[in-house]
Protein 1
Amino acid sequence: MEKQKFGKNYWKKYWIPPENIIKKTQKSFKAEKIFAMGLMPIRGPSGFRKLDYDFAEKLPVKEIITHLEEHHFNVLGVVIKDTDGACMWDTKIGWNPTDRDILGEFVDAGKDSNVRIMASFTSMNDGYQGHIHPDRVSRHGSTGHHTDYDVNGEKIKTPYRPGDSTTRCEGEMRVDIPDGKTFYDVQKKIPFLQNKIDSKKGAARGARGVGFIPTTSFMCPNSEHVEYLVDLAGEVVKNYKIEAFFADYIRYDGEFTDICCCERCVAKFVRQYGDPRKIMKS
Ligand SMILES: [Zn+2]
Ligand SMILES: [Zn+2]
């Protein structure tokens, strides 16, 4: 754990888990040490910069668990809701574009093995919910620009002003059109997919690869999105025996700083703190 490897985000500088929490975790995972692997079911077979529900539908769940056991892993973290918003379980509340209950299959396969299942859940970033509920999407508080793409697939900047929606081109995930299918076939499954191409391969971890670009949205913390998340989380913990639930992406757009300045949020702020209001930077 070299300090320089993590730069200023070296977390042990800020927090070391207390002994009782370590004990509790060991007890619930039934293990002295945890060797965990993570899985993002919708991100395609390589590079994790694709959005690919066909890949999720073909995941060999039992083989994955067997393989993890062979390699002495004892925990698998499954991203059951990624930034696209698809729910990888049998849900009555959310949107599951696959024909599978992937979480249920992992929980069942885990039962017969030494691999415990934990779930990671993207909270405030949700491409699908932003698409179907534009009224729940967070709004910018200042002037800036979104990264957009022109007809040749080259990057361009689109300006936004205070009050504009934060819905924009997804920064990481790109979509390939499978052989024998058209863009419009795929858009039926991914309704927030735009007929726009990113033609450049990015570098290193940010490598997106070429492909069609979905939209993404950060949701407003004073909207019904919050109740939606609580209901989804309730459904998961009620119906699936998982060892841990990680609520990821509890934050705003723009690397934590672009707080929601919609009418709801501004009115609530003014009620609590009075006018004039000003935008705070974290
Ligand atoms: Zn292997
Ligand atoms: Zn808001």
Protein 2
Amino acid sequence: MITIIYHDSFLSVTEKDQFEEQLSLEMRFCLTPDGRVLECNKNGQALVNQFGTHFLNFFSDHVAMEAKTYLKTLSESNDIVTALLQDKVSNHDLGTLYNGFSKDGKINLVGYRTQMMTRLSAEFAHELRNPLTIIKGFLQLSEYTKEYEKYQPVILSEIDRMYTILENYLTMSFRKCNYKEMNPDALCKSIISLLSAECMVNKVNFDYDVTYSENYCKIDVNKMKQVMINLLRNALESFEGQVFEKKIFFRGSVEDKGYRFSLSDNGPGMDTDVLNNLGQPLFTTKSKGTGIGLSLCKKIIAEHRGTFCVSSIPHQGTTVSFFLPFVSP
Ligand SMILES: Nc1ncnc2c1ncn2[C@@H]1O[C@H](COP(=O)(O)OP(=O)(O)O)[C@@H](O)[C@H]1O
Ligand SMILES: [Mg+2]
């Protein structure tokens, strides 16, 4: 199968293959600037079969204009652009979120079927109800027993869980990237303050090692924080039931063409089985999991044109790292 969107400078070769399988609800197209389909993946082919080889044909008349403007914006920009467009089959709930960039005079696009979004919304509504029920229960209990302090940590952690779920949902949907060119050290600093506070609260030993860099990366700070929060949450959740000292280590290091951020934990690690399924939307091994954290992290890193890597040794721990390219001076 041809991989169109995640080209070499964007994701490593192995990463590319994983992506192809993971995001099976994605449609990908490579277009000429005027919208003729040059290549597409299997899901994209379904649209081509139905509507022909012109991108604009995928849309009903009233959104075709939007689609045209979108193509124009893309062909004039080197940045990733995200737009929500609805395709012709929208009455079957197949609206499409397009995310694209141009390279070599071609436009590369990836679309998400909203069926997936619909499924996700249902999941999230469901997921939000659980912590809400718990919060309500504990508040009632503390009112009754007058032991508010006893229940406060649970209530706060449930509220945190709701924040994460909401943030993930928002990113998965329509929020645009807000990139700033910045020194990766600056990002490391805010990551460290975030991590050290969370680790302290959770009684986890935290340490870090950050190398100074003279170069800049293009970063959406909020999205990067979201990646770190997801990775941290996974690490903390992996410690559940662990009796020996829990440790989290953050490293920021300069590499040849970019900067690498990595987070290691000494949790239980993952079996090959789990590793193979990682990043598949909605894959989770937790009873309260949403299975969205890692696939979202991958999406955000891919939007930054970076690479994402997970390595894990059972009974020893897990390291998740991502690499962001430097902007050329
Ligand atoms: N640091 C980690 N240690 C062990 N397992 C992990 C770690 N991070 C992720 N995983 C595994 O990957 C799965 C998917 O993670 P994620 O996409 O964040 O969804 P969720 O946390 O909701 O399960 C988890 O259910 C867990 O099995
Ligand atoms: Mg998670």
